[in-house]
Amino acid sequence: MKIQLSPSRPFNLDFTLCCGQTFRWEKQGDWWYGVVGQAPCKIRQTGKTLAFEGVDAGFVENYFRLDDDLPEIFSRINKDRNIEAAISEFNGLRILRQEPWECLISYICATYKSISAIKGMLANLSRRFGEETRKDTQILYTFPKPAKLAKAGLHELLACGLGYRAKYVSETAKLVRENTLDLERLEKMAYAKAKQELTSLPGVGPKVADCVLLFSLEKLQAFPVDVWIRRAILKYYARYFPKEFVKRLSAQESLSSSGYEKLGSFGREYFGDYAGYAQEYLYHHERMHH
DNA sequence: CAAGTGCCTTTATC
DNA sequence: AGATAAAGGCACT
C-alpha cells in the first residue's frame, strides 16, 4: 500500500523515527520494521511516496500524525533564528501518535539513560515478555501488556537491564492493570490535570509525564525539559529569565521541580499551543550539533 | 585498554 | 523552598 504526500505536507520518515521519541523501530536497508499494537509492519519513504505493509493507510496517517498541518505549526512556533534553523534542517520531522501504555513504560525506563541504552532495555523487555511475530525475515516482538509486566518478577525485570527502574515499571504496571489509572481517559482531560494524574505513578515525574502527554496523549503544548533542552534554553533564551535563576541553573547539576516548571512554562508561553513541536525540533537540533 | 563521564530523572531526605 | 545524594549499568571517549 502507498500514500502520496502532497508538497504542502512535509514528512521525513528517518527524522521522525531517529529523533529519539520512539525506541523500537529498526531500519533494515530502506525499510523500517516495527510493531505497533499487535501488527508487525514495515514502511519506507521514497521522496513523496510512503510504501508500507502490515498496516493500512488510516493507521499510517494516524500514527505519523500526517493530519498535523506542519506548515501551519511552523508558522506558529517559528519565533526566532534558533528554532528556524532547527525547522529548516529537520523539516518533516513529525511527532508520533504512540500507544500510551508503551510510551509510559518507555519513558519510565528512559530516565537518566542514553538513547542506545533505552533501546536495549525495551528490546529486552519485549523479547522476554512480548509475543513473537514475523515480517519477512525479521523477528519482531509486541510490547508486553500491563498484566504481563505486572506479573513479572523483579529479578526478571532487572535481567532486562532496568536497574532501579524495575520496581517503578512493576508498580506502574500493577496500577494500570488494576485500572487505578486509566490511560485512555487522560486524553480527554486538560493538560495540567492529566499531568497531575500521571505524576502520581511511581517513576513518573514532570519530564516523563510531559513525554507521555506529548507523544501519546494529544497534548501538543507539553514541553518536556531534559538536559538538552535545558542547555538550549541557557544558550539561546537566557535573556527571558532573571539573572539569578540562570546562574543557579548553570551551576546546578539537577533541575528542581520549580526550575522544571519555570522552563516548561516558558516553552508553552514563548512557543504557544504547539510548544511540543518546538521542543522536538530544538531537542534534535541540539543533539545533532553539540 | 582502563577509567571517567554522561545519560530525554525520580525519589528520599534534610 | 531549595539543596543534595543515591540509584543500574551501558555506551562512548
Strand content: 5-15%
The name of the CATH topology of the largest domain is Endonuclease III, domain 1
Q: Which percent bin holds the helix content?
A: 40-55%
Total number of helices: 16
What is the highest CATH level, the class of the largest domain?
Mainly Alpha
Total strands: the figure is 7
Q: Based on the coordinates given, report the CATH architecture of the largest domain.
A: Orthogonal Bundle
H and E order: EHEEEEHHHHHEEHHHHHHHHHH
Major sheet strand order = 1-5-4-3-2
Q: Could you provide a short overview of the structure?
A:
The protein is α+β, with helices and mostly antiparallel strands and 290 residues long. It folds into 3 domains: 2-89, TATA-Binding Protein, CATH 3.30.310; 100-213, Endonuclease III, domain 1; 227-288, no CATH class.
What do these coordinates show?
- The structure is a single chain.
- The protein has 3 domains: 2-89, TATA-Binding Protein (2-Layer Sandwich); 100-213, Endonuclease III, domain 1 (Orthogonal Bundle); 227-288, no CATH class.
- 53% of the residues lie in helices and 11% in strands.
- Strands 1-5-4-3-2 form a 5-stranded antiparallel beta sheet, with no helix packed on it. A two-stranded antiparallel sheet has the order 6-7.
- It has 290 residues and is of the alpha+beta class.
